[in-house]
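User: I'm curious whether this sequence folds into something compact or stays loose and floppy. Could you predict its structure so I can see for myself?
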Amino acid sequence: MAVSSGAPGRGNARAVIVAERAIRAGQKPGRPSGTARVAVDQEDVAQLRFAAASKVAEETHAAAAEYVYVTAGEGEVVVDGDRYPVARATAVYIPPGARHGFVVASGGDLEAIQFFARTRQKESGR
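Assistant: Here's the prediction. I'll summarize afterward.
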């Protein structure tokens, strides 16, 4: 599916949804707990939706910091074993290499926008 807004080359913003993928559940292998709609080719921005009362499996990103802005719902983000409550209008910073996941409250789906800031590795010889 592709969605764009604005006209390319005219200075307007343009976003393209290049893929929609399932987010794996931490409690029930093989059953997705949500979806991510990737908004740019490099997968640096995505719209997330996690099902109510679900647990999203923990993961790490060695070469990227992750920012998540919650737009709807409630739950917890788990970062390196510590739990933090999240709700609408909460912004979360997850440093590179931190193990993290989500636990969604039973009252409704959790929706968020996810951004990645990739780290630059030093080139050898410099």
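Summary: The chain has one domain: 26-118. The chain has no helices and ten strands.
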